[in-house]
Structure formats: C-alpha cells, structure tokens
Amino acid sequence: MTGSESTVGKVYLVGAGPGDGELLTLKGDRVLSGAQVVVYDRLVSPEVLEKIPSGAERIDVGKNVGHHPVPQEEISRILLRKAREGLRVVRLKGGDNFLFGRGGEELELLAREGVPFEVVPGITSALAAPAYAGIPVTHRDFCSSVHIITGHMKDSGTLEIPYAHLAALGGTLIFMMSVASAGEIGRGLVEAGLSPDTPCAVVENGTTPGQRKFTGVLNDLEEMIRSGGVKSPALIVVGEVCRLSGSLDWFSGLPLKGAGILITRPEGSAGKLAGLLRQLGARVVMAPLIRTVPLPFSWPDPSRYQWILFTSPVGVRTALEALLEAGSDVRALAGVRLGAVGRETAARLRHYGLTADFVPGVFSGEALGRSMTDQGLAGPGSRVLLLRAETADPELVNVLTAAGAVCDEVPVYRTETRLLSRDPGEFDFLTFTSASCVRGFVESLGDRPVAGLPLAVCIGEQTGRAAAAAGLRVLVAAEATMESMVEKLCEVYHAETSKKTAGER
C-alpha cells in the first residue's frame, strides 16, 4: 500500500484508551503530538484531547447511542479528504479501534484509494475497566478464557448472542455496549443454563474518576442497573472472577476518587498539579482564566545590583528567555545573587543552570523581603532588581525600601483574563496558585455571586488573602507548593466523605 502522489498525507488510526488519559500508549502520544488534523469520538477522554497540538484542526464526530451527527460513511470521507490535502491525520477512537470500534470500515476506503495509513492499537475498556474494578478477567482458580461480546442491538431491535454456546464455555463473559439490553442478556444466559446466582458486575465510566461499580448475581442484573441509574458507557462482566472484586478493588479507595477539582492555573503550567490530582482519582478540569503575555523590556546592567529577585516561575522564564534572545546568556548574571519566592520558582532557575542564593521559609514576596532584611542581606545602600508581573503585590518593595534598599522594578509580563466556560458550582474544590488567578476567576464570574461557591484551596498566604478578600471560602496549604495543596485537598476530601458516609449510616 503506497500513495501514488507525494502530496498525499497519511492517516493514523489511534486507539485513545478507555478513559484514563495516562492509558494512552506511548506511540499514540507520539503520533498525536505531530497531528495536523484530529478526528475524534465522544468517548475520547478530556485528558487525551488536551494533548492535541494547539495548531491542529479538530473535528468532533462524536456519536451517542441512537444519535450519530456525522454518519460513518462521512467520517471515512473526511479522513480521505484531509489526507489528500497532504496532511498528517489522526483518527482518535475511544478504547481500541478494532474492538467494536468500526476502525476496519474506516480504513477500507483509504485502502481502496491508495492513501497510506497506520494503526496504533489502544487499551480496550473490556480489559481495563474490570482491572480498575478489581476483577481479573482470567484466574487459575476460576476460569482460563475470556469472551468479549457486543450487547448493542441491531437496527431491528434484536440481539444475536449465542447464549447456549457462551453458557457452555465456562469463561468470563464481558458484554460491551450492553446497558439497554442487560435484562435480555441476563435472562438469555440463565435460560441457556447459567446459574441465576452466577456472580456479575457492572462497571460504568470505567477507569475515569466517575467510575461506578455494582456487583450482584445474574438473576438481579437488570434490577441492579435500573436501581443504580447506570448509563452508557458501561460494561457487564459475568463469571466467578467477579467474586474477587471486593478484595482486589484498588481504584475505589484512591484518596481523591470522584472529587471534582477546577484548576485555574495558567495554560502551560497546570500539568504538574493536574497530574498529581489525577493520580489520586480526582476529576480534573483545567480552566486557565489568565494567560501571561511577555512585555517588551531591556535588561538593566546586572552588575549594578547585589540581588535579582524572582517571584514566579513565569517571571524567571520570561526574563531569561529575553536574555537569551538578546544574544547574551546566564554568564551576564555572574557575581549577582539570586532570590526566589518558592520552590517552583527556584526550580525554574535551575532549568536555566542557575541556583537561587536565597529562598524564604514562607513562600511569599513579603516573606522574601522580611527574611532578607532580618538576615542583613538587603538594607541601606543595597540595590535590588525585581523582574516580575506588571501588576504585582507591593509588599516586597515596601519591605525592602523601608529597610533602606533601592529597588528597581521591571515588569516582564502581564496577565490577561479569560472567560470561565464552566459552572464553578459543579466542582467540589477550586484551586488557586496565585493572586492573579483569583482576580481572573472573580472577573470571569461577572455578576454571579461568590457566596456558596466551592472551597478555594490556595497555594500560599498571599493567594489565600486575595481569595478571602474576594469573598471565597479559603483553605491555605501548609506550604506554598503544589504537593502541599494536594495533601490539603486529600485531608479535606477524606473528612467530608467520612462525614457523608457516617450520615448515610
């Protein structure tokens, strides 16, 4: 299979995995990073969609049960058309693209037309969802085979499932797309000879923070789904291995399982916090309400100063990138001592081969100034250069100038506010890593009242004061680090869920 014309692009059929964004394969991630066009389905997780390059064209062909806004034939034609434009096209499909994903149908047209393509398999929910529910689909003590069956009804409203054959196999049975047909499946298996007391499980939204699991016996399958309000996507597992779910379920016990958390951190710097939270089971939505814009500036002569102070990682990046673009490098800072507010800012300095000479124990601009003056590092006659945001807390300058230091402030970036597209009330927690994030959040609310909004977990005292002044309920991390924020979130969420569980008893 080769393209006859050099202008023909290539289509990559990529399985996006079952929902957990970290289950996208390494090859899938690499291919996606180079995409010029991405055609994706409803079941591709937000975490995977976040990986789409900013300049790539996005085409949503998402399909719901009974509602296909873009017919399958048109999807295939889109892939063909974009490839003929000479583009690198990624077709993202939830789970694995060849397991009930109609991936083969989409490739048939490309094959006939001579368009190059490549298949990148994905992890299927048929295996991943049971694993996240503590159900090994095979086990030496229970069964030696697993069988995956579609429970999706044909247009005629009928199922074509060989119940007698399945009942005789003695293996684990996994029914995909089966919520609507669960009653018929349960009755069919019992009539074919399976015991009504055969263990079974239903896993909804498998591998995601919204995962729910229901266990019971085959005779109660339909009622289990009805009373639980189970919705698609969900799958049914039938077999003795379901007995292990209680003891092997590791996912339900994650400290932030199911917690909805809004991250307001600027785009490009939210990945670390989001990753920490997702590893602990949280449902994370990134809504960067501010963006940082570099300002044109000229570096003052560093040799004029005893100290250069940085109050944010953004300030470090912006200032040092400007230094490099001007044809200089970090050698220009030789002989000057560097101060940084917080570990993240100090870490950003290390990225450029620089080590902070001073980091205060409390991570705020005011604490930096007081610590320096208290220790005699800044005082009468000392000159200090501050490279920071256009609008910044004045306390650092106030403290230093009160001690007799001469401070030169150079704004190297400004922040711009974006509108909040999500209802903050749908989350359990809001997170803020700077006072500017708080200001952006408040501005994005418009006329909406702040009272009654979720608890705001803040990275430091300065951010906490800004959130409290805005009228938010505030909890400040013990240390001004993202790790400390996560610890505080776990602590509060555990207390809230324990209280709720006790009330239900």
Q: Strands, helices and their partners?
A:
Blueprint: E1 10-15, H1 26-33, E2 37-40, H2 46-49, E3 57-60, H3 72-84, E4 88-93, H4 103-113, E5 117-120, H5 125-132, E6 146-150, H6 163-169, E7 172-176, H7 182-191, E8 199-204, E9 212-217, H8 221-228, E10 234-238, H9 245-248, E11 260-263, H10 271-279, E12 283-286, E13 290-294, E14 307-310, H11 313-325, E15 337-340, H12 343-351, H13 365-374, E16 383-389, H14 395-402, E17 406-417, E18 429-432, H15 435-445, E19 455-458, H16 461-469, E20 474-476, H17 482-504
Parallel strand pairs: 1-4, 1-5, 2-3, 2-4, 6-7, 11-12, 11-18, 14-15, 14-16, 16-17, 18-19, 19-20
Antiparallel strand pairs: 7-10, 8-9, 8-10, 13-17
Helix pairs in contact: 3-4, 6-7, 7-8, 11-12, 13-14, 15-16
